[in-house]
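Recall that a protein's primary structure is simply its ordered list of amino acids. Everything else, from secondary elements to tertiary packing, is in principle encoded there. The following example makes that idea concrete.
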Amino acid sequence: RGSRVVPVYTGSLDFSIPVEQYFYNRQGKCIVDSVINLTGFAMVGGPATQDHDRAVAVLQKLNRPYLVSVPLVFQSFEEWEKSQLGLHPVQTALQVSLPELDGAIEPIIFAGRDPATGRSVPMQDRIEILAERAQKWATLRAIPNAEKKLAITIFSFPPDKGNVGTAAYLNVFGSIHAVMKELKRKGYDVEVPDTVEELIDGVLKDKEAEIASPELNVEYRMSMDEYKKKTPYAKDLEDNWGPPPGNLNSDGENLLVYGKKFGNVFIGVQPSFGYEGDPMRLLFAKSASPHHGFAAYYTYIEKVFGANAVLHFGTHGSLEFMPGKQVGMSGKCYPDRLIHALPNIYYYAANNPSEATIAKRRGYASTISYLTPPAENAGLYKGLKELGELVGSYQGLRETGRGPSIVNSIVASARQCNLDKDITDLPLEEEDAKEMDQDTRDRVVGKVYNQLMEIESRLLPCGLHTVGVPPTVEEAVATLVNIASLDRPEDGFKSLPRLVAESVGRDIEEIYRNSDNGVLEDVQLRQNIVEATRAAVRAAAMQSANKDGRIEEVNPMAVQLQGLVGIKSPWRQALKDTGFDVSEAELTPLFKYLGFCLEQVVADNELGGLMSALDGEYILPGPGGDPIRNPKVLPTGKNMHALDPQAIPTKAAVDCAKVVVDRLLDRQKQDMGGQYPESVALTLWGTDNIKTYGESL
């Protein structure tokens, strides 16, 4: 194929040594354009113990795409070929999951074991696709930006159910517009529409367009001769879909590619699954396949448009969910056939590492994480808001003659709002509060108030994220409040609500318990603590706000103030203004940490990570998951990995799990007449454990 190959070998389990010795010239310049690790192991330490930090440092210095391919070890070639799973789960853990922590991509099988001799036998078709993909990544370094062609693929999310150009938590077209402007700035030949609306009109012609809408712009009509000539597996699709063109993405004579070219950038609409009534059939039916229109779309991108890379835009599409093995695919698996040799870059939501892993292993994607919008309190509305006002009036009139009548109104309104479904011992409407004593009335109102606070404080995503746009103050406050509300014993400080509670001689857990039980004073105290926490965090965030109300960079003076003794910080003053006095010494470690977290939120590398990938560079790996629980998810723009098996469960996860388990066992004991259960069965979900860092575990 014309490449200059630099093969290196070591008997050591530290592969970074030959990398640093042989992949640089005497002047210290890197002489390779892409790297393939054929051991299948992590770069430093092999299968037993790994030093991922050192591996990342070495690869970051090398700054080249890093592919880790895998030889079959626990299976013969025939066993792997017959397996629906593909690679053996143990080998997946050792030789796919662990290298991903180093930033590895594309776990392609390259050799199988001969069942008779036990010798490793090269798999020619897999070696060919591996070599071609490695060369395509390397070529990105050599092609001038003005000549590069990029295909941006957009989806209908949820697949087959949403409007075109949607993705989880993402402002898709606003983000694409930002990407196009950055591409233009970097010298790409791209025609950037003046506004996002012009961009949408060019591709969709209708903002409400769905996947089968006639309004979608047709960029290309592929004849049947061209389709059959350029799609080598087209005949295999006929078992499910009949002869082409079929009914999907078709005008009856040609296969239609929806989208629009903007210079050297093509924005295309990924076709539907094909099984609108039963999309899961693709995952479980052994004979299922993508339809002709789906195959024609990827044939067009690679062999007609001539893309140097494809960017799948947002969570998530359906290529990686097409039929085939789970990991370690063959040349007959449809994700492998569809993506073929195209470098695949994938913007993926940072809080969804589990499905991002599917895209990495089945779609050969190099993921670029994007920040999910901050979670904001849901608030109250309509009847719930009116009920909250009744509770507020009761607190001022509870000991007067109007108290019982207000309680009656609260009970009636609560039932009208269906709160009796959550408050099982809510009095009936025909019961008169005049017959209750003061404590009973307080407890009834307290339980209603607590339920209202629970509804109001439920977290909902705050809008949609736009790639490359700094957060507003409100978005930053929402994120930091949630971060500040968790104890972090591993970092040596308490949560802000706990510090505020301790400042008035109370334990936050006791306040939570009493609030849950309807103790009116503690329901109110809990709400006061929530408001104080928010006020303090807002005071900190405002130190870095610009005139537009956004935070582009963290004010270094604000961070420095946190360490100065004798100066009352804005956050401490905010707490005092809400009636709480917490010492500066107790607040300083927490707010230094919040300052660091804010820096990470602001320092997103979403556009930078994409540009690095398009330049054929190494993308820094990082964990996916909840940035509230683990701020190491930030800054975004990283090549996500799922989890480090040696890092879970965290201490915080154990502490949270203990509370849940204690409550579970108490409930079981209560339901079983004072007896504990003899056995308990648990189902572990990968997604939950990844997001919570091992709480379920």
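The CA atoms of residues 36 and 126 lie 14 Å apart. The longest strand covers residues 255-262.
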